[in-house]
Design goal:
This protein is low in regular secondary structure. It has 2 domains: 40 residues, no CATH class; 69 residues, Ribosomal Protein L15, Chain: K, domain 2. Helix content is 14%, strand content 10%. It contains 3 helices and 5 strands. The strands form 2 sheets. Strands 2-4-5 form a 3-stranded parallel sheet. The chain has a two-stranded parallel sheet with strand order 1-3. β4, α3 and β5 form a beta-alpha-beta unit. The longest helix is centred in the last third of the chain and has 9 residues. The relative contact order is 0.12.
């Protein structure tokens, strides 16, 4: 005996022969029988959205998402060979500002002559350049 995994959606309002005609399964009269209500509707009382204060200040329209600091592959030449490239190393060498949490290494049309073990997110183009130079990407 097979278990039913998916039940098809009820086709509402398709005439009396369907068994779901006339009121289309909404009952009769009342607020819910008529149109759709917004999800945040609370029966007429002041909604939570309107109770909360506006977000004031200079950065209110900015995204809350932190974009990663981008480092080109060719700029890694400053770091000594056979080093594990991490955020700490990039801060020590001055390639990224202190306090940075998100970093990404991009190809940027550069080339490498030294081998590195990279433990920072990088693009597929940067990965091929690093591996071509004899390094590896760990992530």
């Amino acid at each position: 005996m097979q278990k039913i995994v998916h039940t098809s959606k009820k086709r509402l309002g398709r005439g009396h022969g369907s068994g779901r005609g006339k009121t289309a399964g909404r009952g009769t009269k009342g607020q819910n029988a008529r149109g759709s209500m917004p999800l945040h509707f609370e029966g007429g009382q002041l909604s939570i959205v309107r109770k909360l204060p506006f977000l004031r200040g200079k950065g209110r329209n900015k995204s809350r998402y932190k974009k990663p600091v981008i480092v080109a592959v060719k700029r890694l030449e400053v770091i000594p060979e056979k080093t594990t490239v991490s955020i700490d190393i990039l801060v020590k060498t001055g390639l990224i500002p202190e306090g940075t949490t998100a970093v990404k290494i991009l190809a940027g049309g550069g080339a490498l002559s030294r081998a590195y073990t990279v433990s920072v997110p990088c693009s597929s183009g940067a990965k091929t350049i690093i591996e071509k130079a004899g390094g590896s990407v760990v992530s």
